[in-house]
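re: ur question from earlier - yeah i can do the single chain one, its not a big deal. heres the input i used so u can compare w yours
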Amino acid sequence: MTSPLIDELTDAFRCLPGVGPKSAERMVMYLLERDRDGGLRLAERLASVMADVGHCRVCRDFTEAEVCGICANPARDRSLICVVESPANVLAIEQTGAYRGLYFVLMGHLSPIDGIGPDDLGVDQLVARAADDEVREVLLAVNPTVEGEATAHYITESMKALSVRLSRLAQGIPLGGDLEYVDGGTLLQAIVGRRQVSS
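and the output i got, formated as tokens:
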């Protein structure tokens, strides 16, 4: 019989995506056997992050401040808002170094089965931001899934009365991809979204 405390910690690790009972058990045993200092640091940082990180009142991204660093940065292009599903999407786009506008984080996508509607995604807040005279374009960078498409459609319909340009991320064949191995949906998007080659 193992310790009830070890069982509780093992069960707690299982809240992480992709972590099953065996993986959780290995993590706990590793920390107990080989890295107790690391386990204490992990516990302290986790407690601090859970207590102190909230949402930016402007874009809904994670931050410890009322307004995140991106929204507070005067060098960002305030005429462009990129709409993403999660803070992880913000990180991915920022790592490219190619985007200098602002963001709006939906914290999910429309999913009636899961009880997630427009109010949960802050669509009214997004529409209010897009109505600002300074905003010229809203870039919908939602995932190319059924739920993502439904979310993009809903946002598009919600912004019809506004005089802002709505755009979508280009979709299609990945760099280095071989047409032979590209699925039909991706190939269709690449054909529909084709652009002229300058001569």
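The first helix runs from residue 4 to 13. not sure if urs matches, ping me
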